[in-house]
Design goal:
By secondary structure, the protein is mainly beta. It folds into 2 domains: 84 residues, Carboxypeptidase-like, regulatory domain (Immunoglobulin-like, Sandwich), CATH 2.60.40; 713 residues, TonB-dependent receptor, beta-barrel domain (Maltoporin, Chain A). Helix content is 3%, strand content 60%. A hairpin with a 3-residue loop joins strand 22 and strand 23. The longest helix is centred in the N-terminal third of the chain and has 5 residues.
């Protein structure tokens, strides 16, 4: 931009500060004059060199605020300084600005952390907001995991303060998962990209979630309590404001949710977490920071009985299972990161960071069960309607596991950013070492009416005198296991990564063109594979009254294997597994329109991903079991839509919708064509909505809605065919009613609460309509299915239902 301006013989400089009505500086305000544009910094300041001309108009624009402008005669070689105040479009409530103006220029969606306060549902952290964005799906309200544009949980990048975060390895059910690493009370900034992200982010095929923890500005305390647990967060500063400390502890129990499941049991979930974020400014240019975390998630359950009714109107069935035994899951995570940020001048920023992550995971269970499958009387006129008509099958099973995993991941990285006159350069290097020890011992036996499954029979034929006629059978002796795995593995490896990127903007056809080009490399010594990964994004904002931005992203998003992808279903580890490859094309339109005299942002994106060397997998609940082979190619394509704005004056809401398909073709069986991947979901829609009583805005309502069509499934040990079965659609509505007792910056009519910074209390209704969503199936065979001589047997898929309607009470206090 500076070089283009200098083409004019005479120039002037405009500078100044932009604030809101309270005098606070506003960041990322667009300052436009004579075809040249800049944005305010975090302290609200800006500086722009423009042609020196009379009757020059300067425009100030920030999403959610009223536009402002001023007219000035600019003289050559002079600098003009202005103080500008922007007014909110709606002043009845503090606006929850869900998407900031910054995300219109960058390649990520920026979410205001205030949206977390009114989020309804069991998952109330950052992941609870992310799953309501377009292209993002989740079918389990007890898990914080999410899928993005057809990818699975392992294809998402998560960063906290620039450090990559890892999810547990052995979790198989959402109720075992415990607390997410991201502590919502400590979050200061949230950025998310569903694809086409920049080269500075790592090597995953689906998405990136970039979290920055906030730095305290003064002493403060936040406490939260509910029927599902609580948290306590303390802000502190000292040493003449050079030292800051942000500390938080959390406790959560899922007993409220588990009590609504079909299984009656003694549930003992105990999830605890402690985090600390410290910063110390040695000088104005050098700052040290430390992030530490300790988490222990214990899930114990002693099941007693399960009763599940399922089937159709024509055939109503009831499964009753009697249990004996216990499940014991214990996941311990330790994390620490030390970083140094150095700013030798205003243009250059350098960062060094080292981090260590350790997870120790124990998965013990020994469960014996006896089941009865009965058919119910479905005659509406019968006196025995709903009672058992006859027993269709009985049987027993035993599930046993002694699984242990210990993983350590160590990182050292350097990143740097240089803001030049014409653009911004970024580069970085990273070294990573992984040491994983895995003990996998698990087996299952099933007995159906005296038949041990799988049931084998050896046939005896008499060919000498009877002409090859069947005369007898020999029954097997001993116990045959339905599934049995017993392996040990130890893997150590190193990775070397780096990137370089450049971003800038220029004038084109009376509009503004923003572009970012970058390249990554990734080398893994375990399989000796080197990846070169280019990425490019361009955004164009035409001039004129219509506020539109067009986006195009192209690039490679390859994913070298981590340990989970390397281990197959039997526990064997493939150390020569190649990286999965994904090539993205993302085209989008971002526009701001005015409805009801308020701005609304509408974003539409089309994407196509060409996928190579895929590793196929099975998905059950949140458990992923990989083939550990590059045995498929495929593609993903879809259309995402979102509109957000003030549907109710003064507060932000949004609606998202997605059409999507993701397919794969098996290399060993290409004649089957393109089959749906386990995360294939044709349509998904979500709503985040807020409202309040006009006569008393302290009474507020938060509502979330999720709908998603069914995902594919197949019975266990079932060879894939062109025929695909699908789980029923996922449908869920959560609603919360809040009373604001003390609003920040405003006096409360209840005098006792004026000593607080803010306080509110509320009641949440989970699963408002009581819809029982299916997460997976328990498979039961009748006696005929166990007998190889009969073809009349059936295998029944008994739905594993998720939670029912529940009530939760929550209180939040800030000092």
């Amino acid at each position: 931009m500076g070089g283009i301006v200098r083409l004019f013989a005479q120039t002037a400089i405009i500078s100044g500060t932009v604030t809101n009505q309270e005098g606070r500086p506003l960041e990322l305000v667009e300052v436009y004059c004579r075809g040249f544009i800049t944005y305010t910094s975090a302290d609200g300041k800006y500086r722009l060199e423009v042609p020196a001309m009379k009757n020059s108009w300067i425009y100030f624009y920030l999403f959610g605020y009223r536009k402002d402008s001023l007219k000035v005669d600019l003289q050559s070689n002079k600098e003009y300084n202005f103080k500008t105040t922007l007014k909110l479009l709606a002043e009845d409530l503090d606006e929850v600005q869900v998407v900031e103006e910054k995300s219109r220029i960058t390649n990520t969606t920026v979410i205001d952390v205030k949206a977390l306060d009114m989020l309804a549902g069991p998952v109330t952290g950052v992941e609870g907001l992310i799953r309501l964005l377009p292209g993002v799906t989740s079918r389990n309200e007890m898990s914080s995991q999410y899928n993005v544009r057809g990818g699975n949980f392992d294809e998402n990048l998560v960063y906290v303060n620039g450090i990559e975060i890892y999810r547990p390895f052995l979790v198989r059910n959402g109720q075992q998962e415990g607390l997410s690493f991201i502590n919502p009370d400590m979050v200061g900034n949230i950025e998310f990209s569903a694809g086409g992200f920049d080269a500075r982010y790592g090597d995953r095929m689906a998405s990136v979630l970039d979290i920055t923890y906030r730095k305290p500005e003064k002493f403060g305390l936040r406490s939260e309590a509910s029927l599902m647990g609580g948290s306590l967060t303390i802000d502190a500063i000292g040493l003449k404001n050079r030292f800051t400390a942000l500390s938080s502890i959390r406790y959560r129990t899922n007993e409220l949710l588990l009590g609504s499941l079909d299984t009656d049991a003694d549930f003992r979930p105990r999830f605890t977490d402690a985090q600390v974020y410290l910063t110390y400014s040695l000088t104005d240019r050098l700052e040290l920071s430390f992030l530490g975390n300790y988490s222990r998630n214990i899930y114990k359950v002693i099941p007693s009985i399960r009763t599940t009714n399922f089937g159709t109107v024509q055939q109503s069935l009831r499964l009753t299972v009697f249990f004996d035994g216990m499940e014991n899951y214990d996941f311990i995570t330790r994390f620490s990161a030390l970083s140094a940020d150095y700013r030798p001048n205003k243009k250059l920023t350098m960062r060094w960071a080292v981090s260590a992550f350790q997870t120790t995971e124990q998965e013990y269970f020994d469960i014996v069960g006896a089941y009865r499958l009965a058919e119910l009387d479905n005659n509406l006129g019968s006196d025995q309607f709903g009672d058992i008509r006859f027993i269709r099958g009985v049987g027993g099973f035993q599930n046993y596991a002694r699984n242990l995993l210990d993983a350590i991941v160590v990182n050292a990285q350097y990143t740097s950013t240089y803001v030049g006159n014409r653009g911004t350069w970024g580069w970085g290097l990273r070294w990573q070492a992984e040491d994983i020890i895995d003990r996998y011992k698990e087996w299952e036996t099933i007995d159906s009416a005296g038949y041990n499954l799988p049931h084998f029979r050896r046939y005896i034929f008499r060919a000498d005198t009877l002409g090859n006629v069947f005369v007898d059978t020999v029954e097997p002796k001993g116990l045959f296991l339905y599934e049995s795995f017993d392996t040990r593995a130890s893997v150590f490896s190193q990775r070397f990564m780096g990137y370089g990127e450049y971003s800038s903007n220029l004038k084109l056809l009376n509009g503004d063109l923003y572009y970012t080009a970058g390249i990554r490399f990734n080398y893994w010594d375990l399989n000796d594979q080197l990846l070169i990964i280019p990425r490019f994004t361009v955004k164009y904002k035409p001039s004129g009254p219509k506020n539109r931005i067009f986006r195009l992203s192209l690039g490679a998003y390859h994913q070298p294997a981590f340990y989970r992808e390397m281990r197959d279903i039997t526990g064997n580890v493939n150390t020569r597994l190649r990286a999965q490859e994904s090539y993205h094309l993302v085209a989008g339109l971002d526009q701001v329109v005015t409805l009801w005299d308020r701005p609304f942002r509408i974003v539409t994106e089309y994407y196509f991903k060409f996928l190579r060397n895929l590793v196929t997998y099975e998905l059950e609940n949140v458990r992923l079991r990989y083939s550990a082979r590059n045995d498929a190619d495929g593609f993903a394509t879809g259309l995402d839509f979102r509109i957000n704005g003030q549907f109710v004056k003064g507060i932000e809401s949004w609606f998202s919708a997605s059409l999507m398909t993701v397919r794969e073709r098996l290399k060993d069986n290409p004649q089957l064509g393109y089959l749906p991947r386990p995360t294939d979901q044709l349509f998904n829609a979500s709503i985040y909505f807020q409202d309040y009583l006009p006569k008393d805005p302290t009474w507020r309502v938060g509502l979330t809605l999720s709908f998603g069509t069914g995902i594919p499934f197949n019975p266990p040990q079932f060879e894939r065919t062109a025929t695909t079965y699908r789980i029923p659609p996922y449908r869920r509505v959560d609603i919360a009613f809040y009373k604001v007792l003390k609003e920040e910056g405003k006096p409360s009519k209840y005098r006792a609460f004026n000593v607080l910074k803010s306080a509110w209390a509320g009641v949440e209704v989970f699963n408002l309509f009581g819809i029982r969503n299916t997460i997976s199936y328990l498979w039961i065979k009748d006696i005929n299915a166990a007998n190889p001589d009969l073809t009349t047997g059936r295998q029944f898929g008994v739905p594993n239902y998720l939670t029912n309607r529940l009530i939760n009470v929550k209180v939040v206090v800030r000092i």
